[in-house]
Amino acid sequence: MSDAVQAGTKPEREFCSTSEAAQMLGVSLGTVQQMVENGLLDAWKTTGGHRRIRVTSVESFLRKRQTGNPPQSAEPSVLRILIAEDDRLMQALYEKTVATWDMPIEVKIVPSGFEGLLEIGRNTPDLLVADLVMPDLDGFAMIRRLRADPSLAHMDIIVVTGLTPSDIEEQGGLPEDVLIYGKPIPFRELKGYIQAKLVQIQRRTRV
Fold first, then answer.
1. Tell me, which fold does domain 11-66 have in CATH?
2. Does pLDDT of 157 surpass 50?
3. pLDDT, tens digit, for every residue of 47-85?
4. For position 206, what pLDDT does the model report?
5. What's the 3-state SS for 111-129?
6. SS3 144
7. How far is CA 169 from CA 20, 147, 176, in A?
8. In 3-state terms, what secondary structure has residue 159?
9. pTM of the model
10. C-alpha gyration radius of the chain
């Protein structure tokens, strides 16, 4: 019988979940996942696909960070994405699909252009993905307001819409630097765009 059992105490846990590791480290879930992929944390996957991270590797990382010697590129750059879409089915589709992408991204979904502007005012995203037909303030008006603000004029914007090119022109068109995709949501193209943006950000942080 072990000393821990004889003493009536429970042995320390050997593994923790991704969310528990994120809480211990004070980073996002995506960051923890990227740390595992980069070999900064020891982990394995259950048959259900859930990560189990060795607690000692988390504690070791914390000690290195506290002594001022964290591993280089310990926390990969996180891409903040704001999605403006009023259709609940589309919102759920975005959430479920993006959640399967193993990338350091943070996603916020709002139901209107007005809510989009409020969120951008609170926390400017790296990328805006917007529908055009929305209540309160549509995508056209939201994008025009963003482009009229010098501090937001260069924000990356992708439009995903069911409108035809002629419909868009009838509404006054969109700025030339706005990327336009038709519905259904082109997740493959969207994922590729985000991967390219992440590479750009990571290159800038290394300079």
1. Multidrug-efflux Transporter Regulator; Chain: A; Domain 2 (1.10.1660)
2. yes
3. 777 788 988 888 887 776 555 444 444 444 789 999 999
4. 63
5. CCHHHHHHHHHHCCCCEEE
6. helix
7. 49, 17, 12
8. strand
9. 0.63
10. 21
